[in-house]
Amino acid sequence: MNLSITAGVVDGVCVVRVTGDVDFATAGQLRDALLASAAGGHPVVVDLSGVTFLDAAGLSALVAGRKATGGRLSVVGATGVAHRILILTGLFSP
């Protein structure tokens, strides 16, 4: 499955919606989108409700985004494998 990323500011928060598989082949796209979103100076919310797969490269992209925002990055909507990985690694709270 291809990766689709959209971003927009809503009420002073940059919302990044991700759909598809986030893996070694696509994680760079997510990282770039998160770094660009962080540059806007707004808190960032990453909606993973459309993500069907997430691996270590995807986690690395999320961590890079969190660092770029000074910790002002939240992840919402993760389900299935993505949710389990986020919980097991302890990188993002439920």
From TrEMBL:
InterPro entries: Anti-sigma_ant, MlaB-like_STAS, STAS_dom, STAS_dom_sf
Coiled coil: none
Gene name of this polypeptide: rsbV_3
A Pfam family it matches: STAS_2
Name under which the protein is recorded: Anti-sigma factor antagonist
Lineage, broadest ranks: Bacteria, Bacillati, Actinomycetota, Actinomycetes, Micromonosporales
Entry's family note: Belongs to the anti-sigma-factor antagonist family.
GO MF annotation list: anti-sigma factor antagonist activity
Domain STAS: residue ranges: 3-94
